[in-house]
Amino acid sequence: MAKEKKLFIGVLGNYTAELKLLLTTLLVLCSVATLLQFIPSRFTISASDLRVCISRVSQPQTQDPPPSSPSTLSSVSQLSRLLSVPPSPSPPPSPPPPPSDSQTLKRDFNPYGSAAYNFITMGAYRGGLNTFAIVGLSSKPLHVYGKPTYECEWAPRVNTTAGKPITTVGYKILPDWGYGHVYTVVIVNCTFSEPVNVDNSGGKLVLYAATSGGGDAKFNLTDRIEVLTESPGSIDTSIYTPSSKPKYDYFYCGSSLYGNLNPQRVREWIAYHVRLFGPRSHFVIHDAGGVHEQVLEVLKPWMELGYVTLQDIRDQERFDGYYHNQFMVVNDCLHRYKFMTKWMFFFDVDEFIYVPPKNTIKTVLDSLSEYSQFTIEQMPMSSKICLSEDYGKTYRKWGFEKLVYKDVKRGIRRDRKYAVQPRSVYATGVHMSQNLGGKTTHKTEGRIKYFHYHGTIAERRESCKMLVNSTELTHEKIPYVLDTTMRDIAGVIKKFELTMIGSTLQGTRQ
């Protein structure tokens, strides 16, 4: 045991100089590494470079014998040379390779429910021997951001050599001036190069509605829609000739009626206008939810006399268009009854058309016969100011009889309503048509106007909120003047109603 201890001490003594040199070298390197933290960044040797060098020097040589003094000095000199010569900067890291198919994360988009429909038809009508109009709704985003197209096909009932299917490009009209919501109104005009179904053998009108890349851009969907069927012998081609005389002289196309309407106001309106337009007139009322049981009772006597047609359009509420789809409704009425009347009127059930004394609706419209369209000036009436002399008996008076104060504020552009000769009109609006052939005039002052009782049609309580005894007044910064034009003829209208339908509506209440 003593011999082994002496041997270890002897071997250690032989390498004392080398161990001292190694420890001294490590001390110097650690000091240099500490100083490098305070050297400016432009110095090119980094602490990581020194750590590499230290690891190389201190790494044990397992395969070689313990280094002798000359070899140790050689290592130290090599390290000194490395410290004195800055290493070249390392190259930037290479960009990662593009991911392979196995590394790509595929994302899915899963649609549920239903988006806006491509096309919703309300009606399709013949406009002549070779032309048709298709009335409906379509997705508004599709028309704003896409370019949908339409093609029309007439398919004869019997496909013979003389009667093969014929096609034409459908020309679309958007008549709602951009007011549409989810849906916008579309009128597709189909004009063929030759008359169709001239032998009255029947056939079908087919619409091909193509999204043309709109909506789901991955698909160009085309819907085939059979929009009109003509049975054999069902067409009277004589009505499409210019010389044909229509059934009516004056026709009313009403906007969508909705809400809790006042039956008394509807009663007054229909009696007044049947008298104004006369026996060769007809009124189409569109029920969007407003013709409740009490309003229906008011309309029934006039329906039985053939003056009124009531159309239930409540189903249109499924499709979000402007104002209960009134643009679609009036366009359907235009094309459905286009050849049944000489003049067609568009206004609301809180508006009363008026012609001055010594004139009739016939003389006024005859004077405007050179125009395809004319507009009508508005007389806005207060819906709450009445005469004090009516105190205690306002409930017995009709609305236009007691509301006698006219708004005369200047500098305001007021809405106008209008009438057209429908054979010249391709599509229509609410306040006028912008798609027609022929002339339009707005200079109708003194010949025809309309009194507007805004808000009264849906008012179920007493209209008179203020009773005054003055010919002029200002209320809520609006000037009013007394105008008894309609009040003066109320008795005549009441007598006319009694003559036409008897006392059946005498118990009507608002």
UniProtKB/TrEMBL annotation:
Keywords: Glycosyltransferase, Membrane, Transferase, Transmembrane, Transmembrane helix. The chain crosses the membrane at residues 21-39. Residues 86-100 have a biased composition (Pro residues). GO terms for molecular function: glycosyltransferase activity. InterPro entries: Glyco_transf_92. It is found in: Membrane. GO terms for cellular component: cytoplasm; membrane. Residues 82-107 are annotated as: Disordered. It is a single-pass membrane protein. Its main location: membrane. It comes from the Eukaryota. Its EC number is 2.4.1.-. Pfam families: Glyco_transf_92 (PF01697). Belongs to the glycosyltransferase 92 family. This is Glycosyltransferase family 92 protein.
